[in-house]
Amino acid sequence: MDSRSHTHVTAALRLCLHALLAGLLALVVVRAVSEGAADTAAVVAVTLLTAALYAAGAARSSSVQPKGSVQPKAPARPRTSVQPGTRAGAWWLGGLWVLWAALLVLSPDALWVAFPLYFLQLHFLPMRWALPAVVVTAAAAITSFVVHRQEIEPGAFIGPLIGAAVAVATVLGYDALFRESERRRELIVELVATRADLAEAERTAGTLAERERLAREIHDTLAQGLSSIQLLLRAAERSLPENAPATPHVRAAREAAQANLAEARSFVRALTPPDLEHGSLAAALERLCAWTTAPELTVRFAVSGTPVELPTPYEVALLRTAQSALANTVRHAEARRAEITLSFMDTSVALDVVDDGRGFDPSGAPVHERGTGGDGGFGLPAMRARAGSLGGALSVESAPGQGTAVALTLPLPDTEAERAA
Predict the structure, then answer these.
(1) 365 φ/ψ angles, rounded to the nearest 5 degrees
(2) Could you tell me which residues come within 8 angstroms of residue 212 by beta carbon, excluding any fewer than 6 positions away?
(3) In terms of pTM, does the model score above 0.85?
(4) Which H or E element spans position 106?
(5) Which of 18, 184, 185, 237 is most buried, judged by most C-beta within 10 A?
(6) Which of 146, 112, 113, 117 lies closest to 134, judged by CA?
(7) Which residues pair with 395 in a beta bridge?
(8) What is the CA radius of gyration of the chain?
């Protein structure tokens, strides 16, 4: 049988075909012996030759390795194996037909062997040759019936023709089902591969988004805090006498802060900022101003409008923006005064960070973002990305010698806007 289908169903069909042919050949022998015909010996001999030839071809066909199986390598026999579409298979089928034709001449009961021959011809021959072969076989069976019985009956024509039609419809239907099954199998394989690709793309996108979020969090908290510690320790080191006992300790602390600043980017923190866990956004901003205030810098905080409850992502964005903008003021602006204003409006919430420092040209390389570390230039893009993720906008107004104003505006969620109205 065809090596393309080695399932339990096709194996059962092959066994049924073997049993059908064997049973019909046995019927021919039994009928010849029971009737005591003069040519009984010839019938038995031709029948045995037919059975032997069929058994040899069936054994040779089943010995060929099915596709997809794993076996030790051995010399292949594709040209001598009795397989569909091969010359050996055609010669084998032709030999069977000749022996069957000889049986038709000797016994009228041999016409029933035409039914398994239909399936063999449709299976082993290309369709353009199989259909004419089936027609010739049916004609031979009808002719044998007419010659042996010496009469013409409708059944003599209807039986072989119906058998041929059933065989052709069965084989064509099986081929159609097989092709449909193959298409579905290929579709399932494609869907599984597509699902795996989509899952991989989602994992990659999630990883990239998480890396970007962590980069903003680390820059706005750990990196900025360590940078401020460096500045404070450097100022303390300068204010100490040259031979003060505490100078080496302050210097060691400053160097440790500098080393940890380089490692801060590998630190991952995905929780809500601690300042927001134990109080409101306004309280967190007020604590930020108090912590940043120093003898050379005064930072004030103010609230405008009626405060409303904000979603956690909004509070995180506003607090992180204030921390980053104020850190830039401390590091680069050389300002004397700075002010943070949190404004609640009907449809939006705004955060303004204003200082009277040296300013910079926003159209060029921002002086506020020029640091000695490797993260220079990340603060403003991170603030803009954070604002854009919530549908807001970030604006920066500055000029050399005229200070800087950073404004973040976020649209209130619908429920919060209705509550404010």
Answers:
(1) -70, 120
(2) 385
(3) no
(4) helix 87-106
(5) 237
(6) 117
(7) 407
(8) 46
In angstroms, the Cα distances linking 282 to 155, 180, 253, 395 are 101, 67, 32, 21
Contact indicator for 334, 295 with CB cutoff of 8 Å: no
Token digits of residue 250: 């302050």
Asked if residue 124 lies in contact with residue 84, where contact means CB atoms within 8 angstroms, the answer is yes
CB contact set of 179 (below 8 Å; sequence gap of 6+): none
Tens of pLDDT along the chain (421 residues)? 344 444 666 777 778 888 888 888 888 888 878 877 677 888 888 888 888 888 887 777 665 444 444 343 333 434 445 566 677 777 888 888 888 888 888 887 777 888 888 888 887 788 888 888 888 888 887 877 777 775 666 666 677 778 778 888 888 887 888 888 888 989 999 889 888 888 887 787 777 677 667 767 776 677 777 777 878 888 888 888 878 888 888 888 877 877 776 666 445 444 455 566 567 889 889 988 888 888 888 999 999 999 888 888 888 889 889 988 888 888 888 889 999 999 999 899 999 999 998 888 887 644 444 333 334 456 788 888 888 888 999 999 998 888 999 999 999 876 444 444 4
* Cα separation values, 375 from 258, 379, 395, 408, 421, Å: 13, 8, 21, 21, 42
Q: In three state form, how does the secondary structure of 68-95 look? A: CCCCCCCCCCCCCCCCCCCHHHHHHHHH
Q: Are 51 and 100 in contact (CB under 8 A)?
A: no
Q: Would you put residue 36 in left (φ > 0), alpha (ψ -120 to 50) or beta?
A: left
Q: Answer yes or no: are the C-beta atoms of 416 and 308 closer than 8 Å.
A: yes
Interatomic CA distance for residues 77 and 67, integer angstroms: 14
Phi, psi (rounded to 5 degrees) for 57: -65, -40
Close Cβ partners of 69 (under 8 Å, ≥ 6 residues apart): none
Instruction: For residue 407, list its beta bridge partners.
Output: 352, 395
- Angle, helices 312-328 vs 379-389, to 10°: value is 160
Tokens of 329: 């003021």
Q: Write the CA distances from 275 to 87, 219, 312, 393, integer angstroms.
A: 85, 16, 12, 24
d(C-alpha 308, C-alpha 304), whole Å:
11
